[in-house]
Each structure stands twice: as structure tokens, then as C-alpha cells.
Amino acid sequence: MESTAHAFKANVDHALADPNLQDSLAKLKVGFSERRRQAAERLPEFEALRDRARDIKNHTLAHLDFYLEEFERKVIGLGGHVHWAPTAADARRIIAELCQSVNARTVAKSKSMVAEEIALNEHLEALGIAPIETDLGEYIIQLRNEPPSHIIAPAVHLTKDQVADTFLEHHAKLGFDKRLTERNDLVAEARYVLRQKFLDADVGLTGANFLVAETGSSMLVTNEGNADLSNTLPRMHIVLASIEKVIPTLEDAAVLLRVLARSATGQESSAYTTLNTGPKKREDLDGPEQYHVVLLDNGRSSVLGTEMQDILRCIRCGACMNHCPVYGAVGGHAYGWVYPGPMGAVLTPQLVGVEEASNLPNASTFCGRCESVCPVRIPLPKLMRHWREREFEKHLTPKAVRQGLAMWSFAARRPALYRKLTAMANRVLALFGRADGRYRALPLASGWTRFRDFPAPQPGGTFHARWAKRKA
Amino acid sequence: MSTSPSKPPARPRRVALFVTCLVDLFRPSVGFAAVKLLEDAGCTVDVPPAQVCCGQPAYNTGDRATTRAIAAQVIDAFEGYDAVVAPSGSCGGMLSHHYPGLFDDDPAMKARAQNLADRSYELIAFLVDVLGVRDVAARYDGRVTYHDSCSGLRELGVKAQPRNLLGSVKGLELREMKTPEVCCGFGGTFCVKYPEISNAMVGEKSADIASTGADTLLAGDLGCLMNMAGKLQREGSAIRVRHVAEVLAGMGDLPAIGEPERS
Questions:
Q1: Domains parsed from chain B with CATH numbers
Q2: Which three-class secondary structure state does DSSP give residue A244?
Q3: Residues A129 and A211 in one domain
Q4: DSSP one-letter code for A283
Q5: Which ipTM was obtained for this model?
Q6: Residues 6+ apart with CB under 8 A from B244
Q7: Judged by CB atoms within 8 Å, which residues 260-319 of A form the interface with B?
Q8: DSSP string, A389-415
Q9: Which residues does chain A have within 8 Å of residue B28's beta carbon, measured at their own beta carbons?
Q10: How many domains does chain A have?
């Protein structure tokens, strides 16, 4: 997917002016956080599970090479294949070659953010292979030719009416020429249209929530069951997953699953949890003849051992964006690439470059709500601050900000000078603001006064000036 | 972010006030309210003159070198006091949660930073959790809603303390917002770097405030208060905005933030 993260500010203006998006976001903000809160409250050991989940991921990351090789050994033992993809281009090439090896015309895809990351659909289409999104949200945005705006609810930016219009536009030629208004009718129509596509698909491609090293299984959770049709009906099943998805054991998976669904949607567990363990065996009634796992690095291994390593714990639940007031104001598309919200603000600069994504880690108040709900306790504000530090070191911080900061810090490091300057500022601002108590406009502060009044200081001098008088 | 446990059992007597740069420049009455509350609770309050700012503007812009220099200045200025108290969760959190990490490569400074961190508190949490203050003698006739500022809430666990003390103020009725814990959109330099997003956030906050029917908004951080006051006043709201310490110290009759002096 082509990044527009550099155009963050323009994307924000666009998002704030989109009434449909603002409608959708208003629902998201209340719904997700309330359901997550209730789910966490219902489980007394939830906080302890978050600690365990964090520890499991930390342990795995500390021994990532070992568990990846263990996973590979197990998959090969089951009769499957593992393909190592250092870059996005490698992953695209490997998957295309696999599809071509079975003369695939269509690929049934269940939702995969990693497939978005490597822009797989565009690549397959260029080769004459039709990717068909089977997750309802992904299917909707595929019809609309839009990127996902959320990592677990890709079409969350759309209203029901927009979906109804999209279906009418694309399904009329299939005989569905009535505009639907009920949610269930829309789902039923999509289900009907998609069913034949599952049956026709030559290859099924899924992501993975976890890769279990001890068994060689890939694990997927969905609420729609589409992944199960994607991986059992076609002849070839390709799992596309990034390297940090591996975990040691099924026992570990149980811990992570318990925090994942609760953090994501407030469910105790997702409707479908599927383990894929190798290709169809002789005694199996169904399943793919070929089973391939494509392991994508795409810059992740370079994060290991750095101050950013904690982001590799992420299990993609979406809680950070569901609770982020900035995401809640502008939605996912404003972030300009695959991963939005706080986790995206940390991961995107890593994957597309901090020059391209310099705004993302800055567009945060550091309110800390993301960290307070993260199931694996990623210190997201701290990691965003690390990006700001790297930007400052690389002189990417905007010039006006740097100059302002330099002036401020010159004074702030000289208390006597600072006192004189603040006494002056206090006097001037208090004098001219005396009549109203506030300013509707102030030179150099238009960022503030465009939307808010600016309070004038209390008359009578700064605190330090008044304290000195009191003590004298 | 974890909640810091209640610290020394011994009753700290010699307290230094970390005024904060915003209180110093814009609303000295918050500082005097803090002094009064601390003195009423039996403390001797000092205001070290070499203090300026906690360093957050530099810290949150990624300028670590300047942050360290300012932190070192604060560490020097506040040496030797039993406790360092700020009428702000944001500045208090900076001292108590972020300073030690600035000196990971300098064990001597790190130890001094940790020592300061262990003695640093947000004002209201200090009064309640450390000094054991249960009530105040103030009166405030009004319907009040309280905004939980982010750093105080999530770094320092300031949630029940201000509500408990407000419960002892005569004439005061507390009305909760639907989402008192959601950020107001201030975020230090965020509010001028991303004014449109900040405006959307504070607009939502002001709607939540208004829906409570309160006539007064309180919080423990002047930055958030100036942001919310500015938005409410731009919208033409009559809701008055004050720092919680002012009301607790019986200084709730001063002109509110952004209001002119009465002549």
C-alpha cells in the first residue's frame, strides 16, 4: 500500500470534514471501549493475564531465532513448506510463484494486515490473479477500492448507508438490484455472493494471529468463519505472517487468546478459533493439498535489541486505537498507511521510514490511554517519544518548533533571565487582557486562538514575584 | 504506567513547592492555594527560587539533552526537602516517573534523580495519601464537574483523592461527566502543533462538560484547564473553570480562568 503518512495534516483536514466518518467514529469510541471495560471487569485475573501475555512475548522475542526455526522444523515435518521473506518484495514474489505453480486464477483471502503491508492484492492483480477478500469488512473496502481504516474492523469508517450503496452498485449485475437497509440483509447478500467465490478459489490465503512453534500450527481467530473456508476449500493454503507472530506453545496461545478477544471486541473469545497444522493428511476428509507458510521480516528483525523492541509484542487487537482520542477524532485513513492509531504511530515509521511518517508519533497528547489498555503492556507513549528523539537528532523536527524550543530552553536554563522575561510577559498579557480576562486573538498563538480563547494572566505579577514580596 | 505506591510513612514537614511554569505565569492563585493547603496540613512550605520548568516541552519534543540539563537544574534546586509537591499531575509525573530514565548512562545522577522522584508528589494525592487529609474547611456553592487530567490519572493514580476532598466542601455538588478520563486535547505543544485535532478533542470534552449541568469545571492541571476554559468561553458557555486547589483552599470566589477582575 502506498503511504500517504507524509500528508498527515491534509489527511486530518479531510477526515474532520467527513460527516459519514465522524458518525462512524462517534459509535466506535463508545462501543469498543465500553465492551472492553466490561469484559476486563468480568475476568478477575485479567490484569495478571496481561502480565503473563507480556512475559510470553518478551521471552519469545528474546529467543526469536530459536522459536522460528523450531516452527519451521515442525511445519516441514508435517509435510508443509516454510518460505523466508526478508522484504515485502520477496513475500510478493514467493506468493505469486506459489499461485502460478497451480495456475491459480483466483485467491480467496481472509483478512491479513501483513498482506496489506506488502500490497499483495495489487501485485496479484497485475499478474492476472484475482484476490477475493472474504472478510466482510475487507470485502466492502475492496469493492470501494479503499484501504482498511482499522486493523480489526477495516470498514469501520463507513456507515450502513454507504455499505448499502456500495452493494447495490456492485451486486446489481449479479441480480441483486434492491437497495438493502437492514444489517442482516446486507450480511446475507454478501454471504451469498462470496460463497461461490470460496468454491471457485484455487488458493486460500490467510494471515495468522499466532504461529505455534511446538506444533507448527498457525492460529487464526475470526468472527465470520471466512478464514476456515479460505483454508479448507482451495487446493493450496498459504499462510502469510510476520516473524514476531511466533510463540512457543499452545499453552501460551491460550493465555494470549484470553486477552486478545477481550481487548479487541470485549468478547470472551472470538466466534472461530482455528488451528491449521500442515496439509491434508491421508485420513482427513478435507483440507488443502499444499500448505505453505511465508514468514515476513520486512525490517522487524532490525528492531530487536533496540529501544523500540516492545512494539514487536503487539498482538494486533486494536485496543490502542479504540481508546485513542486522536484516532477517535480522525479515524484510520489519516495515518496514511496500513497500521493506524498508537501502534501504527510506532510501527509505521519503522516500516516506511521516519522521514515519511514523521507526523505520526508527534500527533499524540501522550494521554496514556493506549498503554493503559494494551493487553501486552506496550509502553506506546514512551516509544512514540523515542521516535520524536530520533527525529530531533535527525533534524526532522519542524524548524519553527526547533527555534521556539531553543529560545525557550535558553531562558529556562537561566532562572534569573527567565524571571525577568516571565515578569514582562505577565505584565503585558495581564494589562492588555484585563478588560476581558482573555484574548480572542494573539500574535504567534493563532494555533490556539483559532479555536479557543486564551486566558489572560491574573494581574499582580508572577507567582515567584509575589512570593518574593510575601517573604520580604 | 503503574500507580506509585504511597511513599514514606514519616510525616514530611519541610515541603518544597514546585510551582509549575503555567501557574507562575498565568495563575499564581493556584500556587498560593497549594501553599495554604499544605500549611493547613502542618507543613512548612518553601519555594526554591532556582526552579523554572520541569522540562516537558523539551522532553516531549525529543530534545533529550535540554531535558537532562533542565532536570539536573530541578534536582539541584530541590535537594534536601522532605517532599516536593506540584499542583499538577503532569509536572509531578515528570519528576516522579520520568527523571530517573533520563540518566541511564550516569549512575550518580540517576541516583539523585531517583531520590527526587521518590520525594515528588502531585498536590492532592500528597494531601490525601501522604498527609492523611480527609476534609477541608472550604465552602463553594455550585454544581461541579471534575476532569481527570491524563498524567495525574494514569501515571500517579489521582482519581479518588480530589473527589474525596471535594466531598467535604460545603455547598458543593459533584456531577460526573460521561467520560471524565478522556483527554481534553491539550497535550502541551500538541494543541498548537495539531490545532484541528486538539480542537475536535476539546470540543467533545466541552460537550460532555456541558451535558452534566455543572456550573463549574475543576481539574488539577492548569494546562488542561486553560484549554477547556478557552474552548468553553469561545463557545459562549457560562461554565466557570478553576483549579481544584483553589476551591479546596477556599479561594473559589476569585475570578475564574479567563474571567476579568471584578471592579
A1: 14-129 (3.40.50), 135-248 (3.40.50.11810)
A2: helix
A3: yes
A4: T
A5: 0.94
A6: B124, B146, B162, B166, B218, B219, B220
A7: none
A8: HHHHHTT-S-HHHHHHHHHHHHHHT-H
A9: 458, 460-463, 466
A10: 3
Q: How close does chain B come to A386, measured CA to CA in Å?
A: 7
Residue A384 sits in the same domain as residue A410: no
Q: Where are the beta strands (DSSP E) in B89-177?
A: 120-122, 139-146, 170-174
- Position B7 pLDDT exceeds 70: no
Give pTM, 2 decimals.
Answer: 0.95
Judged by CB atoms within 8 Å, which residues 146-175 of B form the interface with A?
Answer: 150-151, 154-155
DSSP 8-state assignment for residue B98: I
For residues A362 and A369, what is the distance between their CA atoms, to the nearest angstrom?
16
Nearest to A434 among B62, B226, B260 (CB): B260
Find residues 208-247 of chain B whose CB sits inside 8 Å of chain A: 226-227, 229-231, 233-234
- pLDDT at position B6: 47
pLDDT tens by residue, B185-234: 999 999 999 999 999 999 999 999 999 999 999 999 999 999 999 999 99
Cα distance between residue A219 and residue A206, in whole Å: 10
Mutation target vs B (from A18, A23, A37, A451; most B CBs, 10 A cutoff): A451
CA angle, A102 then A107 then A111, to 5°: 140
CB-side exposure of B212: number of CA atoms within 13 Å? 24
Q: What residues does A266 pair with on adjacent strands?
A: none
- Judged by a CB distance cut-off of 8 A, whether residue A425 touches chain B is yes
Q: Do A422 and B24 touch (CB under 8 A)?
A: yes
Residue B14 distance to chain A (closest CA, Å): 16
Query: A217: which strand partners?
Result: A212
Nearest CA in chain A to B191: A448
Chain B residues touching A26 at Cβ < 8 A: none
Spatial separation of the C-alpha atoms in residues B43 and B71, rounded to whole Å: 25
Q: Per the structure block, which three cell numbers stand in for A218?
A: 498457525
Would the pLDDT of A23 be above 70? Answer: yes
- Which chain A residue shows the shortest CA-CA distance from B198? A326
Q: By the CB < 8 Å criterion, does A66 face chain B?
A: no
- Of B127, B123, B119, B183, residue with least CA distance to B151: B183
B12's enclosing H/E stretch is none
Q: What is the pLDDT of residues B73-93, one digit of tens each?
A: 999 999 999 999 999 999 999
- For residue B229, the chain A residues in CB contact (below 8 A) are 453, 455
Please check whether residue B118 touches A, CB under 8 A: no
Which grid cell sits at B235? 463557545
- Residue A45 structural domain: 5-301
Clarify whether residues A213 and A179 are in a common domain: yes
